Amino acid sequence: MAESDTIPKMSARGVNVFYGEKQAIQDVSIDVDLDNVTAFIGPSGCGKSTFLRTLNRMNDTVASARVEGKITLDGEDIYGANMDVVQLRARVGMVFQKPNPFPKTIYENVAYGPRIHGLASGKADLDQIVEKSLRRAGLWDEVKDRLNDSGTALSGGQQQRLCIARAIAVDPEVILMDEPCSALDPIATAKIEELILELRGNYAIVIVTHNMQQAARVSQRTAFFHLGRMVEQGPTTEIFTNPREERTKDYITGRYG
Ligand SMILES: Nc1ncnc2c1ncn2[C@@H]1O[C@H](COP(=O)(O)OP(=O)(O)O)[C@@H](O)[C@H]1O
Ligand SMILES: [Mg+2]
Q1: Which ranges carry the ABC transporter domain (predicted)?
Q2: So what's the pLDDT on residue 256?
């Protein structure tokens, strides 16, 4: 990795995660920066979701989960005593595998976060945040005339873009996406991928995918996970064309998955 005096947006060092007695993540260290989309790839059950969730403390919601090691956001320990977890999850937003809009209107889905975080100075300001977020998520034109319809009435692909708009609305620094297209058809998937490419640079983006073509299309850096370990990471093109590790080679050539 190039020497640099800028701190990475997020940095993980020596991270272990346990579910009860069972260790799901072993000694993972990785940096996430603003300029690149980072893909986490690897076979099912290797710990991609578990590790992703350590980055905004979603594992806190799993009673048996225990996280060791150090994870920082702008150099600050996110597991430190001073870290406000609600604030952290606004700064490090998450988009899940299955679109999960609130059973509320499209408008409310996006307005909710800015309202509880006090980001809008009034109704007009909130309207603007909602519009801007929906535009950024590539959904505005499709929903601008039906903002009071339920978010759950949208198609799956639209719901996922609504969830991205909801994450964007609180002005996050990092967006974590856990297989965001796995429940979507190819056209909706292509839209999300386009969106990821557009969002790149505005947010640090981490995407978990088991679709290697997708990783190749949307990411500039890739980390390969296997059996709870991060086996290797590097520029996406290098990981796909010239992996250093045999296990990575086996995976990308489809020997297991
Ligand atoms: N809430 C949980 N409780 C216990 N074990 C879990 C839990 N979530 C995941 N695991 C286990 O941790 C390992 C990694 O799972 P996961 O992070 O979901 O992998 P991936 O996202 O790569 O498919 C698996 O063995 C899985 O069974
Ligand atoms: Mg997973």
Answers
A1: 10-252
A2: 66
- Cβ(116) – ligand 1 distance below 6 Å: no
The pLDDT score that the predictor gives to residue 1 is 46
10 Å CB burial of residue 5 (0-12, 13-18, 19+) is exposed
Provide the CATH number for the domain formed by 2-252 in this structure: 3.40.50.300
Ligand 1 binding pocket includes 47 (Cβ within 6 Å): yes
In this prediction, residue 5 carries a pLDDT of: 64
CB neighbourhood size of 19 (10 A): 15
Cβ 173 vs Cβ 91: under 8 Å = yes
- Residue 201 Cβ contacting ligand 1 at under 6 Å: no
From 21, 23, 28, 50, mutation site for ligand 1 pocket: most ligand atoms within 8 A of C-beta: 50
Q: Are 88 and 174 in contact (CB under 8 A)?
A: no
Question: CA quadruple 105, 111, 116, 122: dihedral positive or negative?
Answer: negative
Contacting residues for 95 by C-beta, under 8 A, at least 6 apart: 160, 163, 164, 167, 175, 176, 177, 178, 180
Reported pTM: 0.95
Mean pLDDT for the stretch of residues 62-74: 97
